[in-house]
Amino acid sequence: MKNYITAMITIITLAFSQNTQYNDYKENLQKYFEVTNTIDLLDFSINQTFDMLIDADAYGISDISKSTLDEIIDEFKTELRRDFVDLSLPIYMKYLSNNDLKNIIKFYRTSSGRKLAKNTTTMTQEMSVVFEQWGEKMGEEIAQKIMRRFSN
After folding, report:
1. Alpha-carbon span 131 to 23, nearest angstrom
2. Closest Cα partner for 36 from 78, 75, 76, 92?
3. What is the distance of C-alpha 22 from the center of its chain?
4. pLDDT tens-digit series, residues 41-50
5. How many domains does the chain have?
6. What DSSP character marks residue 76?
């Protein structure tokens, strides 16, 4: 009986410890998404989606008062943020330890990290244009090389 009680206490302690570690990781992941402006980008996407729905009067949405619609959007954002973190959690846990995440957050709180977070979206947009042009150029060059090889 004594061994049974000891085993149960050990199991409960381990389960509680894992839950605490999970919650700590989740909290740090939320901080990471905040300092990297990921939450702002998510909010921007949600706003764009609602703007399109409103402009198209989808589902008779124009019949809803602005205050009610704002309330719905805010509730939706809260749900989506929570879902986003919950869906991301197992993926981040697979590749980054909680300590890794804490160190990354520390970096994003430096001036260089804030600068990177602020400019990442713009840099990505600019890079996509450059890489699209580069891809087209590479495609043309590859096609020309293939044509030259088979024309001989």
Report:
1. 39
2. 92
3. 18
4. 888 888 888 8
5. 2
6. H
